[in-house]
Design a protein that fits this description.
alpha/beta, Rossmann fold, Cobalt-precorrin-4 Transmethylase, domain 1, 4 domains, five-stranded parallel beta sheet, 17 strands, binds S-adenosylmethionine, porphyrin biosynthesis, transferase
Length: 410
């Protein structure tokens, strides 16, 4: 048979019978996509891996616990043959040929009438990669090409312009704690597609340097606010740029809804009738302690963690934090924006019953090249912050979890 390239096609399998012969690793890898395609899957196999068994238990496939017998492919539109028995594979594949059922064979690509491409998904598109002929088949190479394309589309390093009209609007993107690798895939893609980026001081600022020259990058802290409050001026800038038909990303540190005023911005945009999407981010409240080797919970040590803002002192009438109650909790207390007020906070916690020797860690500029960890106790923390010159941004962790990890990271 002359060697021709395979003809690529997308099978629409909803409600159509697909017969899978063999319930091992190959079936385990292929079944999720067949189920996702809505296929009516019949598995014929005396045994199956625990994952395949779970799919049968969940009613996602029908499993007949027996070996292949002639006639199994009678109603099939498509077949996957993957038993460990070459004779059974050959017999099933001969039946498929006779019945004109396209058939994939795990043991012999040459004898198969169909090949499974390496697939991945991004932005509502399926990327499928096939080698052109059986001799040149190199599954690792096709998988690597698939990964390169899908990853590139996801992280914005491969830009495929959308030809449908892009809706102007705003995306509130949580950028994570600072390390540029800790933004979400969706956040990074939106950033790569933006016309305007309005960024905070905190978050992955290194990513801004990678943006193409036509992207207007605005430092939120530098937006002039004259007769407005700073936040109002930021809201106005978002609205103004979106009204010009631009794609605007509001890049925020951590998660937009953790002390991030995300909802205020979303409400202002909604009032102005501007479409807004919110992309969650990795909050510094968990990731920064983690980066310094501190888990916010630990079995047998802390079954809860509470994240509070320390931007106003406990005796300030604007404070909404119930510090006396927090002093009674046995779990971990994570304080954001608390460096300036830590003396008062520690005093209040001790006054309401928290032991003075409770361990405290301050993690400054977590996940960045300048990350620094300073340890103290509730009793010594105010003095330690002064002598060690701890500066914002820092996450303060109070509780026994501070001492559970090996002190390797600083
Ligand atoms: C206005 S809050 C914003 C929190 C953010 N939305 C989040 O989810 O992480 C700013 C505070 O977050 C903490 N923070 C944010 N990034 C940090 C980092 N990389 N290292 C240490 N603290 C950080 C500090 O306590 C800082 O004062």
């Amino acid at each position: 048979m002359a060697e021709h390239p395979a003809y690529p096609v997308g099978l629409r399998l909803t409600g159509r019978r697909v017969v899978v012969i063999g319930g091992g690793q190959v079936a385990q890898r292929r079944l999720p996509a067949l189920i996702a395609a809505g296929a009516d899957v019949l598995l014929v196999s005396p045994e199956a891996t625990p994952s395949v068994e779970a799919m049968a238990d969940a009613g996602e496939i029908t499993w007949e616990r027996r070996v292949y017998t002639l006639g199994d492919l009678a109603d099939a539109w498509y077949a996957l043959i993957a038993t460990g028995d070459p004779d059974a594979n050959a017999a099933a594949s001969a039946e498929a040929e006779r019945r004109r059922v396209w058939c994939v064979r795990s043991d012999n690509a040459d004898a198969a009438t169909a090949w499974t491409p390496a697939t991945g998904h991004s932005e509502g598109v399926t990327v499928a990669v096939l080698t052109t002929d059986a001799k040149g088949r190199d599954p690792r190479h096709t998988a690597a090409i698939r990964d390169a394309v899908v990853e590139g589309l996801r992280d914005g390093t491969l830009v495929a312009p959308h030809h449908r009209t892009r809706t102007a609007g705003v995306a509130l993107v949580g950028g994570g704690p600072g390390d540029p690798d800790l933004i979400t895939v969706r956040g990074r893609r939106l950033l790569a597609e933006a016309d305007v980026v309005i960024a905070d001081r905190l978050g992955p600022r290194d990513l801004l340097a990678e943006l193409p020259p036509h992207v207007e990058v605005i430092d939120a802290a530098k937006i002039p606010y004259g007769r407005y409050m700073a936040q109002e001026a930021i809201n106005n800038a978002l609205i103004e740029h979106a009204r010009q038909g631009k794609s605007v990303v509001r890049l925020k540190g951590g998660d937009p809804y953790v002390f991030g005023r995300g909802m205020e911005e979303l409400q202002a945009l909604a009032e102005a009738g501007i479409a807004c999407t919110v992309v969650p981010g990795i909050s510094s409240s968990i990731s920064v302690p983690g980066a310094a080797g501190i888990p916010v919970t630990h079995r047998g040590v802390a079954h809860e963690f509470t994240v509070v803002s320390g931007h106003v002192a406990p005796d300030d009438e604007r404070s909404l934090v119930d510090w006396p109650s927090l002093a009674k909790l046995t779990g971990t207390l994570v304080v954001l924006m608390g460096v300036d007020k830590i003396g008062k906070i520690a005093e209040t916690l001790i006054a309401h019953g928290k032991p003075a020797g409770t361990p405290v860690a301050l993690v400054q500029e977590g996940t960045t090249a300048s990350q620094r960890r300073v340890d103290a106790t509730l009793e010594t923390v105010a003095e330690t912050v002064r002598t060690q010159e701890v500066r914002p941004p820092a996450v303060i962790v109070i509780g026994e979890v501070v001492t559970v990890g090996p002190r390797t990271s600083a």
